[in-house]
Amino acid sequence: MARIPNVAAKEAGPLIRIGYWFARRRYGAVPEPFSVVAHHRKLFVSSARHELAVEKASKVLPANVRELAVYRVAQLLGCSWCVDFGAMLQRHSGLDIERLKDIDNYAESAAYSADERLAIAYAGAMTASPTLATDEQVAELVTAFGEKGVIELSYQIGLENMRARMNSALGIVDQGFTSGDACRVSPR
Q1: CA 97 to chain centre
Q2: Which one, 5, 107, 130, 141, has least CB within 10 Å?
Q3: Helix axis angle, 135-169 relative to 114-127, nearest 10°?
Q4: Averaged pLDDT score across all residues of the chain
Q5: What is the pLDDT of residues 94-143, one digit of tens each?
Q6: Residue 69 · residue 120 · CB < 8 Å
């Protein structure tokens, strides 16, 4: 259970209820981070608008590269909600979630392409505190994805760091969007 309780639909104002309806329609359930943030209506609306805008703008990178980098951040930070939701998004995008079981061995695993390995490594470097990203690493990413691609990747990784840290701090845990070992956060 989250450290701050969810705002139930019957207790929510009309704008929040519309957001809940949209989320249920899109994901099959109201994501718990939405219902916790609903305590602050202006941040709820701002967050929803931001997430939709980022989704619409993020079209430079292949989905598999972007989603694996975001998933790696969630996994590294131990956000079980983010891991669960991220695996569900990958499954719904037609991506192979079985290989997520081997993400800790991405550098040697045949399950990942060279571009995916670059993105996963960058996610780890950006998530480290302090950040461990290097000039050489960014140059290699620019060669693979172009400047726009690296900006998109960096933005997505930074955004997932914020989501995962906030969800973890608020005690928001996996919600059951996906089942199976691919969605379990390994203990660190």
Answers
A1: 14
A2: 130
A3: 60
A4: 94
A5: 999 999 999 999 999 999 999 999 999 999 999 999 999 999 999 999 99
A6: yes
**Cβ contact 141:61 at 8 Å:** no
Distance CA 70, CA 56 (A): 16
Whether 158 and 126 have beta carbons less than 8 Å apart is answered as yes
pLDDT band at residue 186 using 50, 70 and 90 as cut-offs: very low
- Residue written as token pair 């955004």: 159
Q: Confidence band (pLDDT; 50, 70, 90) for 179?
A: low
Distance CA 5, CA 126 (A): 31
Q: Around 148, how many Cα atoms within 13 Å sit in the side-chain half-sphere?
A: 6
pLDDT above 90: percentage of residues in the chain = 91
The answer, yes or no, to whether residue 180 has pLDDT greater than 80, is: no
Q: Report whether 2 contacts 169 (CB < 8 A).
A: no
Q: Are 86 and 70 in contact (CB under 8 A)?
A: yes
Sequence letter at residue 130: P
Distance CA 54, CA 42 (A): 18
What's the pTM? 0.92
